[in-house]
Amino acid sequence: MQYRLVNDHIRTPAGVVIGRTAFGYTLQFSPSHVFSQLEADGTIGQDIDFANSRPAHGATLNESATIRPTNHFELALLGNQQWLNVVPAGGGEWQRLFTSRVTRVKGTYTFTSKMFVRAIAQWVSTDRDPSLYLSDVPARSADFGGSLLFAYKINWQSVMFVGYGDDRELTALTLDRPQRLAPLDRQVFVKLSYAFQR
What we know:
By secondary structure, this protein is mainly beta. The protein has strands at residues 2-11, 17-29, 35-49, 54-67, 73-86, 95-112, 115-128, 140-153, 158-170, 181-194.
């Protein structure tokens, strides 16, 4: 376990220097073979609204876990959340500027020492209050990314990869069309890696 006091001054893209003081922590545990690693870290306190170059208060919380139910299967979980509160331009009480979340699941199954398959799914979303921004921003944005990878080690120098990726983005909400995850890009690839030695 590690605890720290963060005190620094940072220059924003607009050239404004803003100071902040926050409490930071890092927690790491390895309780068993199944739950091989549990980790949490973050900061809470003063922060900076870089988009609008002004002081803010908020928190950044990160949690992750590595779980091995069997000797062949590993599951990695990740959850991140950040939020900022600011005082409106006209003054008043602190209000929530945005809340961002990242959720990722990665599963890896090792068949043998030469072959494994890996799948990753990640969801990223941000909810904003457009009235607190100095420029136009959407009230909500999100995207999803998924990938599947198969790897086979042909010999000690050669590895073959076969993969598939699918990324999607949340469309804007309109009066005649609800939000949906629209395809952003899709790819299928085959890669052969060989190490040349002199």
